[in-house]
Design a protein that fits this description.
- With 256 residues, the chain is mainly alpha-helical.
- The protein has one domain.
- 76% of the residues lie in helices and 0% in strands.
- The two termini are 27 Å apart.
């Protein structure tokens, strides 16, 4: 009975751990809503970068365990690098914002943010192809259609900002295209990885990527409309997605 309560799969993913993650999310949202002053620098300004670095470091440990593997060693190294350069990008972003007192968007930080999508995209594509070499027509058509719908919705609701600042509009559009592609791949991965040997560990990692890419698309919509703030729930979603991925990678490392 106790075993049933504590776990829901052979990989040992505990309900207790999921409850802890949920409590962290709720607690963090209360913290940024009630105690963070948007006019002052706070811990909330750095949680995005720190939690991304935690994913990257954990990913390196998994990649090390897969050393010698023709597929997984490279894909987990790519995932780790992606989140490490995300941390670098966030550090550069904060440098512009808090040290130089300049608008960090767009800036050199965007080079790192865009690079993140290439590395995580590589991770998803290579692993999806490994576990499901022959994708059905539904998957091949569904992924670009879903991504296209997300991009179209973004363009429709933000097109009025094009005349104000074309560079910012097209940068936002570029990010939404990347986020939409990753979200679509994550959904596809979710259907593929749940049948793999590592089942739940894979699924939780992809759920984390799915939440992250959704939060990214949401953020760029908010940014384009100039309504984003450090107290917005999208920040909590980023944190939760990274916690999900750290936990999934930890369980993955213990399983292999």
């Amino acid at each position: 009975m106790s075993k049933t309560v504590k776990t829901f799969s052979a990989t040992g993913i505990s309900i207790k751990s999921l409850i802890i993650i949920a409590v962290i999310g709720i607690g963090y949202q209360i913290y940024i809503s009630e105690f963070v002053n948007e006019e002052e620098t706070s811990f909330a300004d750095f949680t995005y970068g720190i939690s991304s670095l935690a994913v990257g470091i954990t990913g390196l440990f998994v990649a090390k365990r897969y050393k010698g593997s023709p597929v997984f060693g490279k894909t987990y190294l790519a995932l780790a690098i992606g989140f490490i350069i995300l941390f670098v990008g966030d550090s550069v972003y904060n440098y512009y914002l808090y040290v130089l007192d300049e608008d960090p968007y767009p800036s050199i930080a965007d080079v790192f943010f865009i690079g993140f999508y290439f590395f995580t995209g590589y991770h998803l594509v290579k692993n999806i192809k490994y576990f499901k070499k022959d994708l059905g027509i539904g998957s091949k058509v569904g992924v670009p259609i879903l991504a296209g719908i997300m991009v179209l919705i973004f363009a429709m609701f933000t097109i009025e900002t094009l005349e104000d600042d074309p560079i910012v509009f097209f940068m936002g559009l570029l990010y939404v295209v990347a986020s939409a592609a990753m979200l679509s791949l994550a959904i596809l991965g979710l259907t593929v990885f749940r049948h793999s040997v590592l089942g739940i560990a894979w699924t939780m990692l992809v759920i984390g990527l799915l939440l992250y890419s959704f939060a990214d698309a949401w953020y760029y919509y908010l940014e384009e409309l100039e309504v984003f703030s450090i107290t917005h729930p999208v920040n909590t979603m980023w944190l939760l997605s990274n916690i999900f991925m750290v936990y999934a990678l930890y369980k993955h490392k213990k399983t292999i």
